[in-house]
Specification:
This protein has a domain of 57 residues. It is rod-shaped, with a radius of gyration of 21 Å. α1 packs antiparallel against α2 and α1 runs antiparallel to α3. It is built from three helices and no strands. The chain has 84 residues and is an all-alpha fold.
Length: 84
C-alpha cells in the first residue's frame, strides 16, 4: 500500500479559501443582524419625531447603536483575513 502524498500548496489554498468564506459569513450575518435591529428602531424613531422634533437626537443615537454590530463583524473579518 502506498501512502498518499498531501500537497501542502493545495492545503494552504484550501485553508485560505475557507478563511475567506468565514470572513464573508461574519460580515454578512452581522449586517443582517444590524439591519433587523435598525428596522424596528428606525420606525419607532420616525414615529417619535413626527410627534415631537426634540426626539431627533435620541432617535439618531438609538439607530446608530445596532450599526456597531456590523462594525464588529467587519473587524472579525479583517482579523480572519490578515492574521490567519
Amino acid at each position: 500500500m502506498a501512502a498518499e502524498l498531501i500537497d501542502p500548496v493545495a492545503v494552504a489554498a484550501q485553508a485560505k479559501g475557507l478563511i475567506a468564506i468565514g470572513a464573508g459569513i461574519a460580515v454578512g450575518l452581522a449586517g443582517i443582524g444590524a439591519g433587523m435591529g435598525e428596522q424596528t428602531i428606525g420606525a419607532a424613531a420616525v414615529g417619535a419625531m413626527a410627534e415631537d422634533e426634540k426626539f431627533f437626537g435620541k432617535g439618531l443615537l438609538m439607530t446608530v447603536i445596532p450599526e456597531s454590530i456590523a462594525i464588529f463583524g467587519l473587524v472579525v473579518a479583517l482579523i480572519l483575513l490578515f492574521v490567519f
